[in-house]
Structures are given as structure tokens and as C-alpha cells.
Amino acid sequence: MGRQVLVTGGTGYIGSHTVVELQAVGFDVVIIDDLSNSSAEVVDQIEKISGIRPAFEEFNLLDSEKLEAFFKKYTGIEAIIHFAAFKAVGESVEKPLLYYRNNLVSLMNILDCMSEYKVANLVFSSSCTVYGQPDQLPVTENTPKKDAESPYGNTKAISEEVLRDVVKVTPDLKVIALRYFNPIGAHPSALIGELPRGVPNNLVPFITQTAAGIRQQLSIFGDDYDTVDGSCVRDYINVVDLAKAHVIAINRLINNTNSDRFEFFNIGTGTGASVIEVVQTFEESTGVKLNYKIVARRPGDVEKIYADTTIANSVLGWKAETSLYDTLLSAWNWEKRIRGIN
Ligand code: UDP
User: Fold this and answer.
1) Which residue's CA is the nearest one to ligand 1's atom 11?
2) Is the CB of 237 under 6 A from ligand 1?
3) Of the residues 93, 129, 203, which should be mutated to test ligand 1's pocket, given the most ligand atoms within 8 Å of the CB?
4) Do the beta carbons of residue 235 and residue 278 sit within 8 Å?
5) What is the C-alpha to C-alpha distance for residues 311 and 166, in angstroms, rounded to an integer?
6) Percent of the chain at pLDDT above 90?
7) Given pLDDT bands bounded at 50, 70 and 90, which one contains residue 300?
8) How far is CA 27 from the centre of its chain?
9) Residue whose CA is at the smallest distance from ligand 1 atom 18
10) d(CA 22, CA 18)
11) Considering the domain boundaries, does residue 222 fall inside one?
């Protein structure tokens, strides 16, 4: 048996890819997920890829009694990767309390248990949303944080502050926050990927669903921004590359190679792509023509953001490897598999 890692939200999009990468290097993975935005079949798919079935416990992390019982049952956990959270920006504007309660209380429940059950190592899912629209590009880890654009974004900013303050007074606790840019794509096996419920808010699922004929037309939100072609610029990071950053972070914590007990890293490619460039690259890599139109700006969108990955490259020793071309193809292969398209 390898060293045991708890992955909360392990049947979700990034969580499931991370479970596979952890298993690939010998970790023994236990998942907690309430299946509020994923399905139990993901556990089967993970097993198909890795040949190993991860332990799976279904409950919501707000239930502190169940979480206590969990830590009494699994006594060998050495590290936790905490993905479980609500992530729909628009919904968070409509239901701020739901987001604050779910995302913040679950983190605090985990921190309570880490202290009580002597688990020292935590990797936290953060986001480039903590930077808002930065004054300078690319953003480094030390670029000043701006007020969050949404309650969702604010839960990530507040969570980082909670972690910083708790680390200060908890001598054994070590935390790495990974600030993801825009995760896209799917596992090369096409057995796991992103499965948004309802109409996708994010660009790439909307593109693949349009290509699959589920959506009639992609709307590109704005072509009058101050960017290469007027559409917004983001740093799209391959989900498997992103998953690997978590494995490196876990090893860094377990092997005690972190210099600071609270560290945070930008996890992106370092290169920005515009919405129109993403659409063109999708068409090139898949050979599928997309039906799209330019519409008005989407409120709350930042104009452009991409990562300075110098610190992640040098300190963490992690680098994005997969091209946008290959990543968009992986997203399409996943969409085709789940829709039964040849
Ligand atoms: N976008 C778009 N059409 C869509 C969805 C997204 O033009 O149907 C644009 C959006 O305006 C943004 C980029 O794609 O510039 C990435 O949006 P997404 O929601 O995927 O990520 P985020 O806004 O969190 O960066």
C-alpha cells in the first residue's frame, strides 16, 4: 500500500484527473464527494484507467459528524487535496450564502479535523480569480490581489486568508495553494473529462457541445476588448498537466521540501489565448467547423489574464507540457465518447 491521500471532490473534473495521476505514482487514494456535481460512475472510470479502485465515501463536508467518523475510519491519511467546492460564478452571485457556507465551512471543518487527527499536509484548489483584472501582465504570485468579481471568487480569496492565518498558529500544518488559470481538456483515454450540468458557462464545454450539435451556436462575448483580436484573453491549462502539479505539491509537502509552510503557485501555461484563437485552434485540431457569432460582452469578465509561471517552474519544478491544439482535441474526443459520436 502506498501513502494515503484524501482527495475531496475526487469525482469532479480536476479531482478525478488528479486521482489518476496520484495512483500512477503509487499513492493510495481515498475520495470524499457528495456527488452534487459529478457521478459515482467516475469511480469506475478511474479504475478503468489506473487498474486501481479508489476508496470512495459519499457525503457533504458540511456534515462534521460524518467527517469525524471518516477520520476515525481512515487513520493513515498523510495529506489532503481539497477540491470540493461550488464553482459556478453566476450562481454564486444569485446565491452568495450558499457559496460562502459551502466553500468556507467545508474548509474549516477539514482544518478542524486535520488538527484533531494530526494530518499535516494540505493542497488547496485556488484560482487566478484572486487577481481580478490585474494592472500588470503576466501575473506573478506577488501581483496584488484585487477585490473578487463574484462571491465564488471571494470564497477562494477568503480561503487563502483563512489558511494563511491558521498556518501561523499551527506549527505542524503545511499548505500549498495552487492558483489555477483556465483548466480545459480531458484525459487522453477519454474516460474522464468535464461534464457540466445544464448549459455550460465555460468556453470549452460550450465549444465541444456546439460541435456535437447539442448547442446550436457559440456566442463569443465581445470583440472590442484591448487584445490581439478584440476577444478576451485567458491562460488555458491542460487538466492532466494541472493534475500533475498536485502530485508534485503533495510530494513537496510530504518530503518536507517546502521552505515556507504556506506557499502558493500560479498553475498556467504562461501564454494567453484569445477566445477567437481558441475557436480557430479547435477547428484546426478537430477538423470540425464551429457555428459561432460575436455578441455583447459578458458582465464581470476580465479583459485579459495569463500567468507568470517562473515560480511554479523553478520552485515547484512543474511546467505545462501539452499544447492548446492537443488539449482541445482531447476535449473533443471526450465529448465524442460521451455522446456516442464517431
Ligand atoms: N466565453 C465566450 N462564450 C461562452 C463562454 C465563454 O465567449 O459561451 C468567453 C468568456 O467571455 C471568457 C472566456 O471565454 O473571455 C473564458 O470564459 P470561461 O467562462 O470559460 O472562464 P473564465 O471566465 O472563468 O475565465
Assistant:
1) 221
2) no
3) 203
4) no
5) 24
6) 95
7) confident
8) 20
9) 202
10) 6
11) no
* 230-274 confidence digits (pLDDT tens): 999 999 999 999 999 999 999 999 998 888 999 999 999 999 999
Helix 64-73 and helix 106-116, axial crossing angle in degrees, nearest 10:
40
**Is 252 a domain residue?**
yes
Residue 78's domain spans which residues? 4-184+238-267
Question: Is 64 a domain residue?
Answer: yes
pTM of the complete model beyond 0.90: yes
Task: Tell me if 190 is assigned to some domain.
Answer: no
Minimal-distance CA residue to ligand 1 atom 16: 203
Q: Determine how many CB atoms are found less than 10 A away from the CB of residue 327.
A: 27
Q: How far apart are the C-alpha atoms of 80 and 82, rounded to whole Å? A: 6
Helix spans in the chain (H):
13-24, 41-50, 64-73, 89-94, 96-100, 106-116, 151-168, 203-211, 239-254, 275-286, 310-311, 324-339
Q: What is the CATH number of the domain that holds 45?
A: 3.40.50.720
> Which ligand 1 atom is the nearest neighbour of the CA of 275?
14
% helix, strand, coil for the chain, step of 5: 40, 20, 40
Q: Which atom of ligand 1 is nearest to the CA of 207?
A: 8
The predicted pLDDT at position 149 comes to 85
Pairing of the two strands 121-127 and 77-82 = parallel
Report the number of distinct structural domains present in the chain.
1
